[in-house]
Amino acid sequence: MPAPIRLRELIRTIRTARTQAEEREMIQKECAAIRSSFREEDNTYRCRNVAKLLYMHMLGYPAHFGQLECLKLIASQKFTDKRIGYLGAMLLLDERQDVHLLMTNCIKNDLNHSTQYVQGLALCTLGCMGSSEMCRDLAGEVEKLLKTSNSYLRKKAALCAVHVIRKVPELMEMFLPATKNLLNEKNHGVLHTSVVLLTEMCERSPDMLAHFRKNEKLVPQLVRILKNLIMSGYSPEHDVSGISDPFLQVRILRLLRILGRNDDDSSEAMNDILAQVATNTETSKNVGNAILYETVLTIMDIKSESGLRVLAINILGRFLLNNDKNIRYVALTSLLKTVQTDHNAVQRHRSTIVDCLKDLDVSIKRRAMELSFALVNGNNIRGMMKELLYFLDSCEPEFKADCASGIFLAAEKYAPSKRWHIDTIMRVLTTAGSYVRDDAVPNLIQLITNSVEMHAYTVQRLYKAILGDYSQQPLVQVAAWCIGEYGDLLVSGQCEEEEPIQVTEDEVLDILESVLISNMSTSVTRGYALTAIMKLSTRFTCTVNRIKKVVSIYGSSIDVELQQRAVEYNALFKKYDHMRSALLERMPVMEKVTTNGPTEIVQTNGETDPTPLETKPPPSGPQPTSQANDLLDLLGGNDITPVIPTAPTSKPASAGGELLDLLGDINLTGAPAAAPASASVPQISQPPFLLDGLSSQPLFNDIATGIPSITAYSKNGLKIEFTFERSNTNPSVTVITIQASNSTELDMTDFVFQAAVPKTFQLQLLSPSSSIVPAFNTGTITQVIKVLNPQKQQLRMRIKLTYNHKGSAMQDLAEVNNFPPQSWQ
C-alpha cells in the first residue's frame, strides 16, 4: 500500500477546491483511505492519519471513527505519537462517551512519567476533558505534581486542579496544603495559575474563603505581589504596552475583590494598594484601562474608604471621555450600579453623562438615559428634564416609551410646581403621545383635577395643543376630558397665567366634533369626546340644542361603545333631564390610592363619581375570550367558573350574545346584553338602566382596614401581591387589587394576568394599567379583580401568568390558597 499523503499536502489540495462539492469529494476520498489504513493496523502512519483526521474535524467533517486510534497513540512510547493522541482525545472525546474512561490508566502512567513534557500532555488532557470519575481516580497524582519544584509542571497542575475542583468539589481540601507555598513562587505562570486556583476555591466554598482570610493571611501576600508588579521596572518577558504582566494584575484584583467583600479587616489591608494601582496605572493604552476597570470594580465591591470610592467614580468619569465606545459603555454600566450608594460622587459627572445621550451608538444612548434618570433629584429636576425632553424629541422610536415613562415618574416625584408638572407631561404627550404607558392619561387627569388654580390655564393650553392635530391620541383624550370639565373657563377667558384666548362655544364644539369624525381617533378617544360634549350641555348655555343633535346622531353608531353612550345620554336629555345638572357637575378633587398605576381613585368627599366614563378610560383593546377558555383548559376540573372580562370598546353588534355565552351559568338578572366597558361599578347584578342605579353611597370601603395583603406569586424576579377591600353595599363582594413588580434588570413585556375560581364563586377581571412590568422595581402593573362569594366559603384561586422576558416567552401557573380570613368571611 502506498504511503499516505502528508498533512501539508492534504491542506494544500483542499485549498485548491473551487466548490464545496469538490472539497467534500476530496475529504470523502481521503477519509476512505484513512479508514483502510486503520483497518490494516498500520502503526507507521497512524500518527499522520490522525493528524489529517483532526484537520478535517476542524473543518466540520465527521471524524468520530478515529477515537480508538487516538487511544492507541496515547499508549505509544513515542512523544510525537502521544502529542497527536492527546490532542485528538481533547478534540474528539468528552465525558459523555464511555471510550474516554479507557484513557484513565494511560494518563495515570504518563503523570508519573520521567519526562516533564509527557506529564504536561497528560495534565492538559485531564484538565480539558476529564470526567468526575477520572478526576477522583487521578486527583492524588495532580496533587503530587502541584508540590513539585518544577514550575512548568506546577502551573499545569494548578489549572488541572481547578478542573478537578469544578468536577468534584469535595476534593477541594486535598489541594489545600499544596496552596500554601504557591504564592511564594517567582515564576509568573505559576503565580497566575495559583491565583486562578485560589479564586475557584474561595468562590465555591465559604469555609475556604474564611480560612484564607484568617489563617493563611492571603491578602497581605497578594498585596505584596501586586505592589512588586507596579513598582518593578521594565521586564521584557512580562511587559505588555509598558505595563508589567496585566493579566496577573487583573487576576489578583479579582481575588482581592472576593476576599474583601463584606470583610472589614481584609478591605482595610488592601485600601492602600488599590489607591496605588488607581493612581499609577497608565491610561493611554487599553491594557491600563482594563486594570483600572478591574480596580474600580474591586473598590466598589469591598468595604473601601469614601475617598477611594470617589477616586473610583472619577476614573469612570474619565472613561466617559474616551473615544472607545466599549470603554464608555462599561463606564456607564458601572456608574449605574454605583449611583444608589455614591449618588453625590456620580452627580459631579452629570454633564458628561448627559452628553452621552447624543452618542450615535444606541447601547451607549440607552445606558446614558437610564443613568440620567437615576441622577434626577429635586435640585436638578429642571435642567435634567430640559435635556431629557430634548432627547425625547430626537431619539429613535424604541427609546420613546422608556424615556416618557421615566420623565413621568421623575416629574411626579420631584416636580417644583404643579404648573411645571402639567407643562412637562403635556410636552411629553405632544412629543411622544403614542408611546406613553396606559396609565399616563388617568395620571394627568388626576393631576389636573387636583390643581384647582390651574384649571383655566390647563384647558387653554390643551385646546391650543390639539387645534388641527389629532395624531397624539393620549393628548387628545386628556384635552377632551379637560374641555368637557372646564369648557366654561375656556370660553370665559379667565386664564391669569398667560394671555387668554377668545373662544366661542361653537368653536369648542367644532373641535370636539372634529375629534369624533377624525380617522385618527380611536374608539376610546371618541368616547372621551362624546362625553365631553355631553358635559358641556351643563357648562354652555347657547348650544344645548346642537349638543342634543350630536348625541342623537351617534345613537345609531356602528361602534357599540359609542352607541351605548349616546343612547344613555339621549335618555338623560329626555327622561332624566332634571338630574342632568347634578350628574354632570364638575369632578371633585381626587386622591390617588396607589402611586404606581392609577387604577383606584377615591373621592375625598365620599361621593361616587357621577361621570365614571373618565375616571377609568375604556381599555384600548378587547381581552380575547379565548384566553379565559385557554386558562380553564390548563387549570382542568369542572368546578372552575370562567373569568368575566370587561366588555371590549370596539366590538361588533353580536358581542352581547358572545359575552353571555362566555359567562355561562352566572346569573345576570336584568343585565343588558353588553355591560358598558367604562362603568367603574362592575356589580354582578345591574339595574335595567345604568343611570337608574346611581347611588350617593360609596360602593367600596376607602381603606381596606384590617385585611392584610399577601404575596400570591414570587418567582424569576416577578412578584404578585394582592391587597383587599370589601363592598359596603354587598358584603359578599371582595375587591382584590393585584400589583405586579419586576426586580430583574430588563422589562417584562406583553404581561397578561388571568385567574379562575371554583363555581361557587363569581369573578370579574378588569383591565390592567399596563402590559409592561418595569425593571429594577421602578414601577408596577395594577389590576382589579372582583369576586362574589355569596356562601362565604374559603377563597381559592388559580392564576396564569404570561409575559416576554429577555427575548423569550414565559408562562407559569400557580394556585393561591393563603387568602386572609377577613377577605372572605
From TrEMBL:
InterPro entries: Adaptor_Complx_Large_Subunit, AP1_complex_gsu, ARM-like, ARM-type_fold, Clathrin/coatomer_adapt-like_N, Clathrin_a/b/g-adaptin_app_Ig, Clathrin_app_Ig-like_sf, GAE_dom. Residues 598-629 are annotated as: Disordered. GO terms for molecular function: GTP-dependent protein binding; kinesin binding; small GTPase binding. Residues 705-820 form the GAE domain. It is found in: Cytoplasm, Perinuclear region; Cytoplasmic vesicle, Clathrin-coated vesicle membrane; Golgi apparatus; Membrane, Coated pit. Residues 598-608 have a biased composition (Polar residues). Its main location: cytoplasm. It is a peripheral membrane protein. Keywords: Coated pit, Cytoplasm, Cytoplasmic vesicle, Golgi apparatus, Membrane, Protein transport, Transport. It holds the Pfam family Alpha_adaptinC2. GO terms for cellular component: AP-1 adaptor complex; clathrin-coated pit; cytosol; perinuclear region of cytoplasm; recycling endosome; trans-Golgi network. GO terms for biological process: endosome to melanosome transport; Golgi to lysosome transport; intracellular protein transport; positive regulation of natural killer cell degranulation. Subunit of clathrin-associated adaptor protein complex 1 that plays a role in protein sorting in the late-Golgi/trans-Golgi network (TGN) and/or endosomes. The AP complexes mediate both the recruitment of clathrin to membranes and the recognition of sorting signals within the cytosolic tails of transmembrane cargo molecules. Belongs to the adaptor complexes large subunit family. This is AP-1 complex subunit gamma. It comes from Moschus moschiferus. The gene is AP1G1.
